[in-house]
Amino acid sequence: MKLGNFELLALSDGTFALDGGQMFGVVPKPLWEKKLPADARNRVRLGLTCLLVRTGAHNVLIETGIGDKFDAKYTDIYGIEKSTTLPDELTKAGLTVGDVDVVINTHLHFDHCGWNTRREHRRVIPTFPRARYFVQHGEWEHALHPTERDQASYVMESFRPAETQMEFLEGNHEIVPGIRVEVAAGHTRDLQCVWIESEGQHACFISDLVPTRAHLPYPWIMSFDLYPMETLANRRRLLPRIVERDALVIFPHDPEVPWARLEESGGKMFAKPGI
Questions:
Q1: Which strand (E) or helix (H) includes residue 3?
Q2: CA nearest 179: which of 206, 207, 198?
Q3: Which of 29, 151, 184, 211 could form a disulfide linkage to 146, CB 3.0–4.6 angstroms apart?
Q4: Could you give the CA distance from residue 106 to residue 144 in angstroms, rounded to a whole number?
């Protein structure tokens, strides 16, 4: 898809599944299951969407999916299905891992940074040898020392071996011309959304602030969010701005629609059909 002078490609790293109650927090199941039906284990199927932005000067990759560093038990728990992988998707786009200049992680949960690294024989090494990896410094520190509540969300081998290529941010920052990050706390303290702008056109990789279209109602907040009231405040701050700019929104986990434009009606947000 063209966005001004940029090219945007939604890349998939397959799908996985999480408990529906965790995905929708205080929202009753009779409401959320109309949007995302649950399986026999009460899990909902979720996408693993990464975004490739070709600016002409840089190949920028936002998120790196869930990766492949997991065993059979892990695969079963999270219902991981690999109809495709991020490296395969890059190949289809005519790129190799060596062509990626920039990797932006919105945060370091296992389903967002899995391909930051890969296994080579008995070693775990950075997947993208030339890339600079960007993440908030606070998120990095928390990932190294998570709490008992969220330690299962961080898989050290998915990000620690790439430390020498990491660049740590302190707040909002322009990464390359036309691409900047904005901190939107809630899911984690230092979650960052990614804004993309070219020729007056806008897009926003909104990350787990709004993981799927089903989470567009302001109070439909995941129980995974460490700071749910900040999630609510940042949704109310950012979503109207997205509507005002007619920005394309990229959802990290929508199983069917990776991106959409939004409209507001009666104080509620909706995804428009088509783009």
A1: strand 2-3
A2: 198
A3: 151
A4: 16
Name the helix (H) or strand (E) containing 238. helix 228-245
* Consecutive H or E run containing 234: helix 228-245
The region that residue 73 occupies, defined by phi over 0 for left and psi between -120 and 50 for alpha, beta otherwise, is alpha
Average pLDDT of the segment spanning 37-63: 98
107, amino acid identity: H
Cβ-contact 249, 204 below 8 angstroms: yes
What values do phi and psi take at 33, rounded to 5? Answer: -70, -15
Residue pLDDT, tens place only, 65-118: 999 999 999 999 999 999 999 999 999 999 999 999 999 999 999 999 999 999
Q: What is the pLDDT of residues 144-199, one digit of tens each?
A: 999 999 999 999 999 999 999 999 999 999 999 999 999 999 999 999 999 999 99
pTM above 0.85, yes or no: yes
Strand locations in 84-242 (E): 102-104, 117-120, 123-126, 132-136, 166-169, 173-176, 179-183, 192-198, 201-205
Query: 15 is written with which tokens?
Result: 């799908």
Total residue count of the chain as it appears in this document: 275
Q: Beta partners for 2? A: 7
Could you identify the residue written with the tokens 């990797």?
Answer: 103
Residue 47 pLDDT level (bands cut at 50, 70, 90): very high
- Annotated domain spans of the chain: 2-271
Domain 2-271 top-level CATH class: alpha beta
212: enclosing H helix or E strand? none
Backbone φ, ψ for residue 132 (5° rounding): -95, 130
Can you name the residues that pair with 157 across neighbouring β-strands? none
